[in-house]
Design goal:
Blueprint lengths: L1 H21 L1 E3 L2 E3 L1 H12 L5 H18 L2 H9 L1 H10 L1 H11 L3 H9 L1 H11 L1 H10 L4 H11 L4 H8 L7 H10 L4 H22 L1 H7 L3 H23 L5 H53 L5 H24 L1
Antiparallel strand pairs: 1-2
Helix pairs in contact: 2-3, 2-4, 3-4, 3-5, 4-5, 5-6, 6-7, 6-9, 8-9, 9-11, 11-13, 12-13, 13-15, 16-17
């Protein structure tokens, strides 16, 4: 009995030791904590010394135990800084890192490396705005926020909206132009909003030397926008699809209502005219019969009047039946 108890304890301890050594599964492959730490250290560009590996194992394992295995998986992509900053700042900050990871591994890593600025600007502008800004300008959040705030172009949200559809290669040029010429930054961003990539390409291609020497000017911005506005408008129209002529629809509805009203009006007029004619004929017929009956009374044939009235009723009924057939 004692031997069985000792064996059970030994097996349990061995199983727990194997589970600890295994670490966790990443992309279908089981990794030990040492392997995970080494992968994270390589992404961080740190030396794989024994002390560094032990320290990384401790940090990543503690973060995974407290905030979930996703911290360890994210550390493999974004470096050991992901686990370090998560332990330092908590689960909310790791939630921001997870949003960044949806864009790219580079976005995740740059967010972890610039945690101080990210926390500060996220509190001011919101997590989503800063994460998107970092995805477009990896590692350049502080520069972009500073440039937009100094130039007074409406805050970082407007800058993000203006450049969110631009290719990545245009971002450094836009950022440099804002930093170098804060006095024209507002007008520049306004035209980026309207003209997009066409405007950005034109303004930098046509004025490359002048911009390098003295920066942007209002005249450069205006000329580039006038040259590219038709292209930008065409691109927007193609994207939206053919326009719907609301005025034409309204006019068509008006015409339809007018035609319907005319048809109803004509029908009413025909109906009234026909009924009037029938009533007139009926009155004339009654007058004739009444006249005949009056003559018979004068001659002393009093018994003829009821007969005349009955004849009138019968003829009136016959007349009505004929008119009904004509109506149908």
């Amino acid at each position: 009995m004692k031997k069985c108890l000792v064996c059970s304890v030994f097996i349990t301890v061995a199983a727990l030791s194997c589970a600890g050594a295994a670490g966790l599964v990443i992309k279908g492959v089981s990794h030990s904590w040492d392997e995970i730490a080494k992968l994270a250290l390589k992404v961080s560009g740190r030396e794989l010394t024994d002390d560094a590996v032990k320290s990384a194992v401790k940090t990543i394992e503690q973060a995974a135990e407290k905030y979930g295995d996703d911290v360890a998986k994210a550390s493999v992509k974004g470096g050991v800084e992901v686990a370090e900053q998560t332990m330092k700042r908590g689960g909310r900050f790791f939630g921001v890192l997870q949003k960044a990871a949806q864009y790219s591994d580079e976005s995740l890593r740059t967010l972890a490396l610039n945690a101080d600025d990210i926390v500060k600007y996220s509190a001011k502008y919101g997590d989503d705005v800063i994460v998107k800004l970092n995805a477009k300008f990896p590692g350049q959040v502080s520069r972009m926020v500073a440039a937009t705030e100094k130039s007074g172009i409406g805050g970082v949200e407007r800058a993000v909206r203006a450049v969110s559809d631009l290719p990545s290669e245009d971002i450094p040029r836009v950022l440099g132009a804002i930093e170098k010429n804060p006095s024209v930054a507002r007008e520049f961003i306004e035209h980026v909003e309207k003209g997009g990539k066409y405007f950005v390409d034109k303004v930098f291609e046509a004025n490359a030397k002048q911009i390098m020497a003295g920066g942007l000017s209002v005249s450069m911005i205006g000329a580039a926008y006038r040259a590219t506005a038709p292209l930008a408008a065409t691109a927007v129209q193609i994207e939206k699809g053919p326009p719907i002529d609301g005025g034409g629809i309204v006019d068509g509805m008006k015409c339809g209502m007018i035609i319907l009203a005319l048809c109803v009006g004509v029908g009413l007029i025909v109906y009234v005219v026909r009924k009037t004619r029938l009533a007139k004929e009926w009155i004339e017929e009654r007058h004739i019969l009444e006249g005949v009956a009056a003559k018979e009374l004068e001659r002393g044939n009093t018994h003829e009047r009821p007969g005349m009235i009955n004849e009138f009723a019968a003829r009136n009924m016959e007349w009505r039946n004929v008119r009904k057939c004509e109506d149908h």
